[in-house]
Design brief:
about 100 residues; alpha+beta; Alpha-Beta Plaits; 2 helices; 4 strands; elongated
Amino acid sequence: MKKIMKAVFISYNQALTEAMDAILSRLHIRGYTKWDLTVGRGSVKGEPHMGTHTWPSMNSSILTIVPDEKVQPLLETLRKLDSKTEEQGTRAFVWNIEDHL
């Protein structure tokens, strides 16, 4: 029987890269794909991160596939980080993985 797996997509300001790496290590989340340079604008508040003269900040993004039991600890940790760094605009989204090998 296969484990229930979830995809977690995380977008965050590059200034938080060390904190994000530490979170993944502390929670023993080893496998992920990372995009170092992503741009975007949050749907709630905060400034756009576009890598331009006007909006120079940049984001990074991570996609990790984790067992279901790791999702809540990861989200709770990310919420704590976001509450301390609201202007940075960390966001995470979770969805089901239908199959994997």
